Amino acid sequence: MLFHIRCKDKPSQMNMRASTRAAHLNYIANFGDAVFFAGPTSIDDGETITGSVFIIQFDDKAAAEEFSKGDPYRKMGLFESVEIEQIRKVIPTDD
Predict the structure, then answer these.
(1) Contact 3, 56 (CB under 8 A)
(2) Based on CB atoms within 10 Å of each CB, which residue in 2, 17, 31, 64 is the most buried?
């Protein structure tokens, strides 16, 4: 199953994000091909980070939640909110 995880940062937490970034990236790398996409969101300036987005594949929502709970960003309290939804890929088609 595919899941979309949308994490919104707490305001004014760029220092926490920066100090935890290496641990966050190492954690995500451990999941290999289960992570289809991971990256930050930002305001229009492209520099001011507002959160994170993931597209991941796990057997069920419980596994997606465990993945999210293990993220160093989440463990350190960076996120104001975390939303996890199952998604279905329609385009492009896998022919």
Answers:
(1) yes
(2) 64
